[in-house]
Structures are given as C-alpha cells and as structure tokens.
Design a protein that fits this description.
By secondary structure, the chain is α+β, with helices and mostly antiparallel strands. The protein has one domain: 3-Layer(aba) Sandwich (Aminopeptidase). Helices cover about 20% and strands about 25% of the residues.
C-alpha cells in the first residue's frame, strides 16, 4: 500500500516516492515524471502533432465512474460502463493508480491484485491515446511493481500492447500460455 496516498507531481527531478509493502518501505528512485513531449514517431501508433504534457500519478481513489467510462471509450474499449459495475471493480482491486494532466483530466488508469508471493495480475492498464508516448504507462507499471516487489507480474497484452510491455522488460513465457475466460450466468442456479 502506498503511503499517503502519494501524488507524484511532474517535474524535472527524480521523485523519491515511498511505497509501504509487506517487506517494508520501498523507494521508487526511477519514478521520473516530467513535462513530456508526447506522440509517436512515424513507426509508432498514432499520427498527429506532438504536444507537451505535465501529469501526476496518484493512488488516491478519486476516479469517478464517468471519467473511467470516458477513458475506456477514448481508447476504443467501448461504452456501457455503469456506476455499479465500476464501483464493484474499483473496490475489488487492492491497487488502483491513475494519471491526471496538470489540468485534471484523467490520462491513465491501472488496477492490479496479487497473492503477494507467486503472482500479481494486472487488471487494466489504459492510457488515453493523446497521452501515449509520455511515460504514463511506464510510471503506472512502476507503481504496480513497487507495490508487489519480487512477485511476478502477469499481463494480458493484446495487439500493440505487446510491444509496450516488451519495451518495459516483460517477456513471453517459454511454455505456451493461453488466456481463457468464461462469463458465468448472472442467474443463480
């Protein structure tokens, strides 16, 4: 659990964010947030002009269901995110962190849970398309990794996200792994 909860302001200096874990406090010396030149190169994922953006990362539970729904829709993950479903999900994850522009707009969101020993599972990692390439996704992943130190983090990387996670040091398992799911009936038997 992060102490505070901390807000990591954008700046040109390293931030020593302290995370409280079962093993004791952990310093996040690499968490370096700064106004960033955002956008992708010609080989990247997004066209358009580059912009400069300052942002903050926080674990404060201040994201509203409307902001979450708008963020998910902005990246093409559809609509239909209602208040009750968001609140069930939001309260179920022991770790939720988000990124906000200095002006307050929600730019990114991550959720994760862990058994604290063998596996940490990433729920969602979402970064607004106009903010991709600014370091927000990496900063959110550093919060997850610091919260559960020494515990492998598993992600369901779809499409272009595979390249992002590989660039962050994640690797594919040597044995084939298939993600499977089943949505049980909502009617009790």
């Amino acid at each position: 659990m992060l102490l505070g909860p901390p807000v990591y302001p954008a700046s040109n200096v390293s931030i020593g964010a302290v995370c409280k874990t079962a093993a004791g406090p952990v310093l996040l010396p690499e968490l370096r947030l700064q106004p960033a030149r955002c956008g992708r190169s010609a080989r990247g994922f997004q066209s358009g002009s580059l912009l400069t953006m300052g942002y903050q990362i926080s674990t404060a539970r201040t994201v509203t269901w409307q902001e979450f729904a708008e963020l998910m829709e902005s990246v093409g993950w559809g609509g239909g995110y209602d208040k009750a479903s968001f609140q069930r999900s939001y309260s179920a994850y022991p770790l939720v962190a988000h990124a906000r522009a200095d002006e307050g707009m929600l730019l990114g969101y991550v959720s994760a849970f862990s058994d604290g020993a063998f596996s940490t599972m990433l729920g969602e990692l979402v970064v607004r398309r106009t903010a991709q390439g600014c370091g927000i996704g990496r900063a959110l992943m550093r919060v997850v990794e610091a919260e559960f130190p020494g515990v492998p983090v598993y992600v369901k990387a779809m499409g272009e996200a595979k390249r992002f996670f590989e660039a962050c040091g994640y690797r594919r398992p040597t044995a084939e792994m298939t993600v499977m799911f089943k949505k049980p009936s909502s009617v009790p038997r």
